[in-house]
Structures are given as structure tokens and as C-alpha cells.
Amino acid sequence: PHPGNLSVDPATGALLFYDFGMMGEIVPGVREKLLDMFYGVYRKDTGAVIKALVDLGVIKPTGDSLTIKRAIGYFLDNLARQTERGETLAAIGEDLFAIATDQPFRFPATFTFVLRAFSTLEGIGKSLNPSYQFSEVAQPYATELLDLQDAQSQRALVVTQLQQQASELGAAAAAMPQRIARMDALLAAVESGEVKLRVRVLEAERAARRAGVMQAATMNVVGAMGFLNVGTMFALGGFEGPAALALGLAAVFGVLTLRGFQRVDRLDKFEKDIRG
């Protein structure tokens, strides 16, 4: 919003919007999932946070969900303090590499408006009051949500626990034969080769990635030197146009070579940080 499409009703004090081009609506289902994620972060419940993010479309379910769980759990455990980069990489460096490779995170378009609204409120507040803090303004509302959640949890705690215990005992007794049959079928499938265990070796993946980047950089070196030689020969022969083109391509391959070796250097530093 800007002064051209935003006003205030002098009678009621309500905000008036004249342009809805950059507006969106958070549907009730999304609001509920956002609250679930908020409560999960407050309780440091990694499973609840991941489930809410999957339901919101922020995380795409992948075959390797354990790395996402460990990474989110680490950040939840260290939410109240500022961790150093080396400490983070030493703790979950391999998980971060796996996440960067699988790319399970997405950013739904709906949240673009949410972030824009937060940044707009922060900017307006700062312009009116330099000491304005959005977190301080939002704290009473967050506290109200937490108090409501705690009150509801306390009222239903006894009944829920009794029902859950009875349900778990009954389900465990009824499912025992089926679980034994499943284990026997799984072992038989493994022995016959129908089921194959997949082991993910992250060190090998990082080495293969480094080798691929190094190979691309080497090919760029060859291209740069080749075009440099061709450009030099054209220049000595008096062919200015082809010489300029060849030397320009040599410069492009040279930049690609530099960027490739910089990526290799970053990968080596990342590997060193992981190993401590």
C-alpha cells in the first residue's frame, strides 16, 4: 500500500483500500496450519512443525525426511540463542548438504503477501516511531494464542490421556499378530531380493559434486585457452572482427572458470567445517 491507494475513514478510523492488485486472502485452512506451526515452534515439537509445513506446501515430501527433521529440530532447540556458522555446520552440516541437494522447500505465492504485509507494517511503524518493534506489538497476540492453547490443553488433558492410553493398549493388542506377519513378510522379501535397502552416503555425494564442478571448470579452462589462441592468431593475421569475437569468448570462459574454482573452494571449506 501507498498513499495513492490507502486512506482512513475519518468517522470510524477504518482503513480504506482503493486498489486490490497486491492483496491476497489467507483461507481458514491455511490460518489453522499457521497456528499449528506456531504452537509446534512454541512447544519445540519437530514433528508438528514439519507436518504443518508439509500441509502448507512449504516442504515437499521427499524420501529422505530424516535430514529435514534433524535440521528443523536443531534450529528449534537453538531458537533462543545465536549459533555460530561453524557450530551449525559441525552439528547438521551433512543434513544441510542433503537438503540443498534434494531441495524439498518451496515458497507458496500466498506467503508473498504475508511477508509483504509484515515488511510494510514494519516500515510504517519505523517511519512513525524510530523505536518501533514489530515483535513487541505482536507479543500480546502471541501470548493470547498461547494462553488459549494452554487452557484448552489443560481442560482436555485428563480425558485425552485416559482415552489415548485405552486406545493404545487396545490397538497394540489387536495389531500384534499383524505386526509379526508384516515383519516376517519383510524379512522374506529382503532375503529373496524383492526389497533392497538404500544407503545414502553423503560423503560420496559431496565428492561426486566436487568432481563434477572441477570437471566443468577444467573444460572451461580448455575453452578459454583455445579461444585465446585462436583470437591471438586472428589478431596477428589482421582479422580484427573474428579476433574480437574469439577473445570475447575466451573472456567468457575465463569468468566461468573463475566461478567454477570459487565453487570448488566453497565446497572444500564446507567439507572442512563439517569435519571440524
From TrEMBL:
Q: Kindly state which keywords UniProt assigns to this record, in alphabetical order.
A: Membrane, Transmembrane, Transmembrane helix
Which Gene Ontology terms of cellular component type are present?
Answer: membrane
Q: Which GO terms describe its biological process?
A: membrane lipid biosynthetic process; regulation of response to reactive oxygen species
Which residues belong to any copy of the ABC1 atypical kinase-like domain? Answer: 1-51
| Keyword presence, rRNA-binding | no
Which Pfam family, any one of them, does this sequence belong to?
ABC1
Q: Which residues cross the membrane?
A: 243-261
| Keyword check for Nucleotidyltransferase | no
**Family designation:** Belongs to the protein kinase superfamily. ADCK protein kinase family.
> Protein name, please?
ABC1 atypical kinase-like domain-containing protein
Q: Which organism is it from?
A: Chlamydomonas leiostraca
Lineage of the organism: Eukaryota, Viridiplantae, Chlorophyta, core chlorophytes, Chlorophyceae
